[in-house]
Amino acid sequence: MELPYELRKLPPQAIDVIRFLSLQGGQADTDAICRGADLSDRAFGKAIRRLVTRNYLSMDLDGAYRLTPEGIKAAKIIARVDELNPRARKAAGEAEDTVSRRLTVVVPRLLGVGSPAQLYAGIEAPDARQHLNGATSVVLRVEGINCSVSPVEHTLSVPQNAAAQPAAFTVIPDGIGQGRVRMRAYQLLRSDEVREVGGMYFDFLVDDTPSTALQAVGIDLDLYI
């Protein structure tokens, strides 16, 4: 089963917004949607414009967005398709086997405005029960908010039983205040298929003078064995 043509014409971010709202009673404000659906301001704007134009969403007087009757219908269709999708059956034990590997990112707590800083991202060694069947590759794609990040993509070679060599990104804050980096991880499978295996965002402070203090953040990736 696949989505109807009208829903397939929507950008993926719009489908994510409908999914999120359907789990929130059909209504949420802008900040909640961006956090829950992991959207940048630009992606949020693109998704909302399409959904409002096509009458899947309406905006309340307080600025919150609500699923319309057409949006509720679309949410039910999307939920049904997700239910029949192999990835959605993972909880029932019917999906392909995965193991958990920790993605850790180290970045300064305080960056200096306009001053380049290094961000390091690596995948830790597995514990005794989380071995891959062989080495694999994971692509990290980044997006900066109130900062620039380069390169925008790094590929990590993940050994079967050891940690991956960390990748270095350069972050340059645009202005004083706070910056944010969004990172998504994609695994390159032997079948030449690419699958998203995790994502996160993290914030840092920006001032005139940088600090040498570091912070480490991380998530568990579900890698296909």
Question: What do these coordinates show?
Answer:
The protein is built from 5 helices and 13 strands. With 225 residues, the protein is of the alpha+beta class. Strands 8-10-6-4-13 form a 5-stranded antiparallel sheet, with no helix packed on it. Strand 11 and strand 12 (194-207) form a beta hairpin. The longest helix is centred in the middle third of the chain and has 16 residues, at 69-84. The two termini are 26 Å apart.
Q: Tell me the distance between the termini.
A: 26 Å
3D shape:
flat
What's the pLDDT, averaged over the residues?
87
Would you count the extended β strands for me? 13
Helix tally? 5
Which percent range describes the beta-strand content?
A: 35-45%
H/E element string? HHEHHEEHEEEEEEEEEE
CATH C-level class of the largest domain: Mainly Beta
Biggest sheet layout: 5 strands, antiparallel
| Rg calculated over all Cα atoms | 20 Å
Domains (count): 2
State the strand order across the main sheet: 8-10-6-4-13
Coarse structural class: alpha+beta
